[in-house]
User: Fold this.
Amino acid sequence: MKAQCTRSGRRLLTLRPQEEHETLEAACEREAQPAFAREYQQRAGIEGTISAGVRALHLRRSRYIGLAKTHLQHVLTAAAMNLIRLGAWFAGTPLARTRQSAFVTLMALPAGA
Assistant:
């Protein structure tokens, strides 16, 4: 029957131990809950802020040696991020739209297009 279902010569089936399978099933059920979506939304916002800081202000490396100077750099970087956001807000710059995959964009097109 395999030859009728697929053209590939080899398929693999992974069977996990029961405990691991149950753990993965519980995680999938938890991710389907609305509370998880709210929690993840907050995390996504934080990750976006960190990503913007890495791109604009080079957050990955400290310019200084020592905990006190590095802490001062972190505080000043956070203040700079806030100033950049305030400047964009005062200038009326619209927020960037969340990127969508090509598939999602394709699915959003009208059926006859």
